[in-house]
Design goal:
Cytochrome p450; 5-stranded mixed beta sheet; 3-stranded antiparallel beta sheet; 18 helices; globular; binds protoporphyrin IX containing FE
Length: 391
């Protein structure tokens, strides 16, 4: 069978600016399609995307998730970019301090920060939902709870965005990001040492856990990337999306305020619709017939989480924001062995944000032109002016 072809650059400004229509066109072509401009396959329907995530021996992460081999050389070895036993050992170190049962001690800090923020924003009434609302908690968590030295404070967002820009072949955005990724590595080499880290912080826990699993000091320092790179833009994107979605669908805000137990599901629905990480690739380990196409060893396949999350065969009225829908099949946090290790922390932050706003806000309104962040991997608003009516 001839593979369906979608002859558009997946990382072009056009697709990044208006991805939903592009995903719809891709899904209509078939479960797995060929992207000649990116020289890779793309799993665009839910079923093949899920299957790839659940077959990590056939679809490898350990050769890197980027389409660009130079980028992979820099990232291979992190939890995200490793396989099998190496992945398991590494994940055992960094996932432990942020497991659901470990987060109770972080709750008072996050709750306090969310309450202070909600007070400030509801007295301002007009604010930017990205800069003033969504960014505040994730950044202060990296600094305060992770316990990194203040030196990196102003660079953190830049470094995180740069990491996500690298997941493309060779466009200007990825080229510009190399230098920033080097900066992050150097920062961690120099400052990511126990003597520079705040006591009681999550990073310090890495240095307690890592030696038990046979890791050196240098390896432990680089492991802190697990808390920086993937934690910021993802959570920020979801928080801003929630503000947008509730402004567009006020009846959903009413529903949430009338029953705060709906908050967790509202968060999953926002992660489904926003899908902050739109796609990562895997390396095909051996020749395989897969959902109607023939993949060869060494091919790359993009798992397009964002498209899978709008597959109508799994999610009815997939483009509608509905906080009561069954969301458990969404792939916004991934699936299988590489499923997001920070999801419990992200959920906690987002829950506190919504709970604090629900106590004070009657209505969200869009308040001017929103702009889209031009990032190769992260889907997010760059700016989102909003106005809130208070209770
Ligand atoms: C709403 C927020 C978030 C979203 C949507 C998200 C999404 C994802 C996705 C889709 C993956 C799977 C990647 C794959 O299939 O290869 C992943 C993995 C990961 N995430 Fe998150 N993430 C979020 C928040 C966080 C936070 C707060 C942290 C850290 C504190 C974090 C750390 C990680 C790490 C380290 C991995 C790699 C896990 C592994 O390979 O075993 N994430 N995330």
């Amino acid at each position: 069978m001839v593979a369906p072809i979608y002859d558009v650059d997946f990382y072009s400004d056009t697709v990044i600016s208006a991805p939903i229509a592009a995903y719809r066109e891709m899904r209509a072509l078939g479960p797995v399609i060929w992207l000649p401009q990116n020289h890779c396959w793309a799993a665009v329907q839910h079923s093949p995307a899920l299957e790839i995530l659940r077959r990590p021996k056939l679809f490898l992460s350990g050769k890197g998730l980027s389409l660009n081999p130079d980028v992979n050389k820099m990232l291979i070895g992190s939890s995200l970019n490793s396989d099998g036993e190496a992945h398991r050992r590494q994940r055992a170190v960094t996932a432990t301090p942020i497991m659901a049962d470990q987060l109770a001690s972080l709750t008072p800090f996050i709750e306090g920060a969310a309450e202070t923020l909600a007070d400030r924003l509801t007295s301002q009434k007009h604010f930017d939902a990205v800069v003033d609302f969504a960014r505040i908690l994730p950044v202060s968590i990296v600094i305060e709870l992770v316990g990194l030295p203040d030196h990196g404070k102003d660079k953190m967002l830049d470094w995180a965005a740069a990491t996500f820009n690298l997941f493309d072949g060779y466009n200007a955005r990825s080229e510009a990001s190399f230098a920033k990724l080097r900066e992050l590595r150097e920062f961690l080499d120099i400052y990511g040492k126990p003597e520079h880290l705040q006591s009681g912080g999550l990073s310090k826990r890495i240095f307690e856990e890592a030696p038990k699993h046979g890791f050196s000091l240098e390896q432990s320092a680089q492991m802190m990337r697990d808390y920086i790179a993937p934690s910021l833009d993802t959570t920020i994107s979801t928080a801003a999306y929630l503000a947008y979605a509730f402004a567009k669908a006020p009846e959903q805000w009413d529903l949430l305020c009338s029953d705060l137990d709906k908050i967790p599901n509202a968060i999953e629905e926002a992660v489904r619709l926003a899908t902050p990480i739109r796609a990562f690739s895997r390396y095909v380990a051996e020749d395989v017939e897969f959902h109607g196409v023939t993949m060869r060893e060494g091919d790359r396949v993009l798992v397009v989480y964002a498209s899978a999350n709008r597959d109508e065969s799994v999610f009815e009225n997939a483009d509608t924001f509905d906080i009561t829908r069954k969301t458990h099949k969404h792939l916004g946090f991934g699936q299988g062995v590489h499923m997001c290790m920070g999801m419990h922390l992200a959920r906690l932050e987002l829950k506190q944000l919504l709970a604090s706003m629900a106590k004070r806000v009657k209505r969200w309104h869009l308040d001017g032109e929103a702009t889209i962040a031009m990032n190769n991997t992260i889907r997010a608003f760059e700016t989102l002016p909003v106005r809130v009516e208070t209770l």
